[in-house]
Write a structure and sequence with these properties.
This protein is of the alpha+beta class. The chain contains three helices and two strands, in the order E-H-E-H-H. It has a two-stranded parallel sheet with strand order 1-2.
C-alpha cells in the first residue's frame, strides 16, 4: 500500500471554511504531501488524515531478549543464567506451592 500523502494515496480532508482549507493546503505543501480538500460548510470537519501525517505512529520497542549464556544485562559480568535468571522467575511459569496439585 502506498504511503499516506503520496500521489497514489493523497490525504483526504473535509473542512467548513475556505480559510481553513487554504491553511491545510499550505501545511501540506510545506511538507510535500499530496492532499484533497473538500469544502463542505454543512458537514462536520474531518482532518484525521492530516493528523496522521503530522503525528506518525512511533515504532514499538521490542523487549530485551537475553540468552541464558549471554552476559547479564545488569552489568555484573556473570552469565545471565547464573545471575538474574535465578533471581527473577518467569511470570508465565506455573508456580507449584505446597498444597497445589
Amino acid at each position: 500500500m502506498a504511503r499516506l500523502g503520496s500521489r497514489q494515496r493523497p490525504a483526504i480532508v473535509r473542512v467548513q471554511t475556505e480559510a481553513h482549507a487554504r491553511e491545510i493546503v499550505a501545511v501540506c505543501d510545506a511538507h510535500g504531501w499530496q492532499v484533497i480538500v473538500g469544502l463542505e460548510p454543512d458537514a462536520p470537519e474531518d482532518v484525521t488524515d492530516l493528523r496522521k501525517l503530522l503525528t506518525p505512529d512511533q515504532p514499538v520497542a521490542r523487549l530485551l531478549s537475553v540468552g541464558r549464556n549471554a552476559p547479564c544485562p545488569c552489568g555484573s559480568g556473570r552469565k545471565y543464567k547464573k545471575c538474574c535468571l535465578t533471581a527473577s522467575p518467569d511470570p508465565t511459569a506455573p508456580s507449584l506451592e505446597k498444597g497445589e496439585t
